[in-house]
Amino acid sequence: VQLQASGGGFVQTGGSLRLSCTASGSIDGINGLAWFRQATGKEREFVAYINWSGRRIRYSDSVNGRFIISRDGANNAMYLKMNSLKFEDTATYYCAATSLTGTYFYTTSQDFDYWGQGTQVTVSS
Question: What pLDDT does 101 receive?
Answer without folding.
Answer: 86
